[in-house]
Amino acid sequence: MWKLKGYHDSDLKNMIFYSLLVVLEARPYQLSFLREHHDFELKKQGSLSLQSNMADAPNMTGFMSVMSMKGEMKAYGAFTYDSMGKKLRFRSNESSATNASHSMDLLMFFEEGIFYEIESKNQSCVKKKLHCSMHPLDIPDDATFSTKEHSGSAAIEGEGLQLDVWTGSMPDKKGHYSMSVTKGCLPVFTFYFTESTSFLFRTMEIENEIKDPDLLAAPSFCVEQPVEDTPEGTVNGFLNEFV
Ligand SMILES: *[C@@H]1O[C@H](CO)[C@@H](O)[C@H](O)[C@H]1NC(C)=O
Ligand SMILES: *[C@@H]1O[C@H](CO)[C@@H](O)[C@H](O)[C@H]1NC(C)=O
Ligand SMILES: *[C@@H]1O[C@H](CO)[C@@H](O)[C@H](O)[C@H]1NC(C)=O
Ligand SMILES: *[C@@H]1O[C@H](CO)[C@@H](O)[C@H](O)[C@H]1NC(C)=O
């Protein structure tokens, strides 16, 4: 029988029992940490390996064009996207020829579920509730990996672009989308097909950073705005702004 100096047998038993308890209690946390870590590693590898697990889009600044399938240029302009904060600013470029009836300046807060239609000229602003969080800069969580394809040439250096294609259905199930992104999850183009209309969003000249963070903050003349009532049957979302 082994003994620890100065401890009774019962003390020793208690000590062993409580250390076991501590180990057991810690296990769920350890497991969930391991699981999260494993998922994270998978996600990280996804953007590098052939598996094409979904990765998150990075922060971005660039240009975006919106075209209807009838060939109308709906909008062209600069965007800024905060991929973690889920914030998007899009301002149409007035110097380019589009069929849009008005210039566009949108600031979307997908996490908060609100957005602003900004009119800088007369410093006016409309604040609205956001019903649909779909937009062409990030792959939706429920998208399905469709295929990996090489646009242009895979054989000639610098003449090709490897794309991952992700597909899914629209939230109301009355349509679907197909999204093509680079290995590093930069969006290249996205098609949205719905019963009534279809659109092509293209992105260009992307830089991997937020160049002007101020663009992602609501202008002072917007902040005090009350949220406008949504008319019955209206769905507000980034895509709906181009219909
Ligand atoms: C993206 O931008 C936001 C806001 O500026 C910043 O908090 C975040 O750290 C950036 N993320 C990366 C990956 O740089
Ligand atoms: C605008 O629409 C008209 C008719 O729908 C079309 O002929 C014209 O090419 C369009 N312009 C642009 C810039 O898309
Ligand atoms: C319009 O777009 C071009 C890039 O295509 C950009 O250089 C220019 O600054 C933009 N103009 C405005 C007013 O946004
Ligand atoms: C500002 O201009 C827009 C578009 O020209 C117009 O719809 C809106 O009513 C104007 N707002 C104010 C407060 O003048």
Automatic annotation (TrEMBL):
Highest rank taxon of the organism: Eukaryota
One biological process term in Gene Ontology: cell-matrix adhesion
Any single Pfam family the record assigns to this protein: Ependymin
Gene Ontology CC terms: extracellular region; lysosome
InterPro entries (alphabetical): Ependymin (IPR001299)
One example GO MF annotation: calcium ion binding
Family: Belongs to the ependymin family.
Name of the featured protein: Ependymin
Species for this entry: Oreochromis aureus
Lineage: Eukaryota, Metazoa, Chordata, Craniata, Vertebrata
Gene: epd
